[in-house]
Please model this.
Amino acid sequence: MNNHPTSSPTSLAVGRYNYDQLDHNFLKERINQFRSQIQRRLSGELSEDEFKPLRLMNGVYLQLHSYMLRVAIPYGILSSTMLRGLAYVSQYYDRGYGHFTTRQNIQFHWTKLEEVPDILTHLASVEMHALQTSGNCIRNITSDEFAGLAEDEILDPRIYAEVMRQWSTLHPEFTFLPRKFKIAISGSSNDRVAACFYDIGILTRLNEQNKPVFEVWVGGGLGRIPYQGKVIRDDLPPEHLLAYIEAIIRVYNLHGIRNNLYKARIKILVENLGIDAYREQVEKEFASMDLDQYRLSDDIMSQIQKRFGRPTLADYPNASATLENQRKQDKAFDRWVKNNTHPHFHKDYIAAVIALKEVGKTPGDITTEQMYALADLADQFAFGEIRVTHLQNVVLGHIRKDQLYALWQELKKYKLATPNIGLITDIVCCPGMDYCALANARSIPVAKQIAALFEDIELQEKIGPINIGVDGCINSCAHHHIMNIGVLGVDKKGEEFYQIKLGGSSYKEGASIGSILGASVTADEAIAAVKKLIDFYLEQRQDNEHFIDTYRRLGTAPFKEIVYATA
Amino acid sequence: MPLLKNGEIISDPWTLIEGELPNPLSPNTIVPFASLSEMDIDAASQPLGVLFPCDQDIDALKPFLSKLALIALNFPAFKDGRAFSQARKIREQLKFTGELRATGRMLSDQYQFLIRTGFTTVALPETANIHSWQQAMNDFTEAYQPSILNEKRLSGLRWKV
Model:
């Protein structure tokens, strides 16, 4: 399970589980079932109330203007073939684009219900599906965008994410839970998945015997009432992963609140019982289980791991020097490398983060043309593998350092070379009232206008690392609670207003839920407020302090004063 | 109320008694759990069944287990999946081998889930489309989880259904 096995055939699409005939058969049966469910709805055998959860479990939402299809990207990994499949769907069944979400899914906002089985059939041909991307079941399992390539990784979380994907697929016991259920896993102790804000978040560490064990967080979540999760177990042997999460979810299924939608998440149960009482119930359940039946034996793990392709990374001793020279000669390239790359465990390779955050564009949107282009570039430069991030960007994971310049020049042609990762225009944004039936306010125009204020890249770099999330409703798809600056759309008697939150932070180290700054304001005032907050921060910061640190040092009051003094 | 077992409609020898229990109780009677705890179970006619609510801990059944030939669990709404977990616990932890019956509101799409969590019979609503239920039994030929049926493992995490 380490980062460097060479056992899988190189012909498999890299970085992901490649289907065999059994997996293909299963998807075919699932699509046939959904076709018949649609027929039963049309014939009146199923009421809309009965049909709704069935279509949701196939990723089909009824949005404001049409049906939306949310397609799963398990642990965020796509092969170039899969991305071309998505491009095809966007081209022939949608309006020429797709929208990446914070849960490593992609959404098509303009599909027709009667065409969904055909879309699913097309997706199945490239080993993709929309299973459990919605509904009160175990949702798509997420991981971090540098899984399998990060230097600090203890085990490859994708293999365990795939195990959990398979196990949770049409789980007979857990497909009608009190509410949706979200799991994220990181193969490192460094939290890159916001583990403590998930129903179950899993981090990996080495124990005293130098063996990998899982640190399991439970009961985190955002939405109406945000909670930071708690550690339920910090030394779970990986072989017991399925038994343990099954125990956690069984206790939740039996005891979670079912008569109040807003209190039905596991976070409320954990909060009500207290983590110690919850743990006690889970441990009792775990102790009563036939652990052998659930054991992730070496044999099972190796059968699954063998279906994962891996890149063959050769040594290129001059690659680093070449890259350094190119950076010196081209300032724009140097800036992009500084802001948009991440180290790879192999010293001659690097991971490139491709921003879908060009100023003026909807965050997370990708056009058909860009999808086809990225698929080709992935084939040319990155072993045919693309990763989707939980901050609505994409990553090409294994680029030879001496080929990075050529890749960047290609990316520029498709407006995919914006050098703003982690900077103020790298805004996370939900679809809001432009699309979503749940939203109270628009989010996309607000995000675009905030980005426009800070278009100057030198200003962005001066401001430094900061994240902003803009949400159109309390469901928090854009994670506004755990962003340094969160903007939340609220409805006041039919008019759109925005609440501003400050001081959120996503990851285990320094995790926090933002505080509401004051009364909600109009869209224009909210945009102006962000500008005032940033100006104030630039005045007040000491040395190269990040925004979050200045905020923590000064507290909410002076920031509130700045925004509301003249408002 | 049509009773479904292995995809076939069968006659139902059982009668559910709610409210005041007759004395003596005739065989093949299903009584609500609340009554079960009040009656003299050793004097009750056999075989005896119980309708167990979805909001109680199945360990409450333990004292009566040896006298029970049938346990009926309830789905107050098809979206309420508590009885799936109760069924598994009754099979795996209480080792109950008698008839496990699903009652209440369910969809045919849940038939395989019911079977795989340990139910043997389903009391269908009068309005159910029996053809849909029979078809649903064969919706899937494989699954990614083990079940109480001890099905054959195919490979990896796949089991034959």
Summary: Chain A touches chain B through 41 residues (CB under 8 Å). The CA atoms of residues 21 and 27 of chain A lie 10 Å apart. The radius of gyration of chain A is 23 Å.
